[in-house]
Amino acid sequence: MNQIKRGEFLIKPFLKRNNLRALYQIISTVIPIISLWLIVHQIINSSLLPLSKGFLLIPILCLLTLLSSRTFSLMHDCGHNSLFEKRRFNNLFGFLLGILNGIPQKPWSVDHAFHHRNNGNWEIYKGPIDVLSLDEYKVLSKKKKLFYKLSRHWLMLFPGGFFYLVIKPRLGLILIIFNITKSISKETLIKIKKGDYSELFNIKSRIKPPFSDYGDNFDELFDLITNNIIVIIGWIFMSKWLGVAFFLIFYSIISTLSAAILICIFFVQHNYENTYASKTQNWDIVNGAIEGSSNLNLPNWLNWFLADISFHSIHHLSESIPNYNLRACHEANIHLLHQAKVLYLKDFPKCFKYIIWDSKNEKLIPIS
Length: 368
Hints:
It is a single chain. With about 375 residues, this protein is mainly alpha-helical. It has one domain. The chain is built from 15 helices and five strands. It has helices at about 20-45, 50-80, 85-100, 105-120, 135-140, 140-150, 155-185, 185-195, 220-240, 245-270, 285-290, 300-305, 310-315, 325-330, 350, and strands spanning about 130-135, 295, 340-345, 355-360, 365. The strands form two sheets. It has a three-stranded mixed β-sheet with strand order 1-4-5. A hairpin with a 4-residue loop joins β4 and β5 (about 365). α2 (about 50-80) runs antiparallel to α3 (about 85-100), α3 (about 85-100) packs across α9 (about 220-240) and α7 (about 155-185) crosses α10 (about 245-270). The two termini are about 25 Å apart. Residues about 205-210 have low confidence and may be disordered.
């Protein structure tokens, strides 16, 4: 592999953030979402036949799904502190966009930053689906091998998407509260009575997998709790406004499809034939960015809904580049991206075969 140095890339001119552009992106996403929900209310309360209502709701459902994906992409930028000029604005709007997505933004962004720090090092970061090494896979029983293969099938994007946006943040809070309550010993209660709260507030020692990415410290825990309270209140309001059954079904479909799109995009941007799949000893962060992140050749309209995350190599090279500068930065450095993989929509299905890490040969491989 050619060793390309980060200094060879033209990055600095594209790091400039613009509050007006960022605010416009937020407004041009949120207002259509509000407008579409108002239209949904009008449709379901109209005198139209149920079949006619269904035909009218399908395109709205598709638009809300895509706008939800865009909302998540903008939240992702806020997590990188790259959308607005000031961190406080990124934190504020990231939190608000997290509410729209039903996911706590701060703990999510901390977990996502780990991915950026270790991309291409498959000894440390196992991708979005916890890829097993070849050695780990070989020692599994036949039943577990079959389960592993089926659970990583592309069809699992849909139940996985529902779990990721609708269930996991809520379940994470429940399990954290349970673990904290369970871990309070008699000795701790005695200390509390004496006014010593230090052990009670030792949050990190009380958080256990698999939800440790939700609430590792007080800031994250506060975000988790606040997000859940506001989201659940929002669900109650929307249920009263649109009807419980209709809202929960409609909302669940949107969340499921939106999360499935995002997980799919994230997956194919890192799991594909000949992706950079190094051990820690041989890992290089620039190679991980360029050769371990595919760039997607997608229609412009779809790129808009994904906030140009298709230009993924450059994004991994510098996550501080705002999404509205990614395309220009990509084009300015195209001569240095000959090692980067380019994928088309037709290439996506075969990416889901690469779910085993061959640590000896440092590559992802299909299950034989």
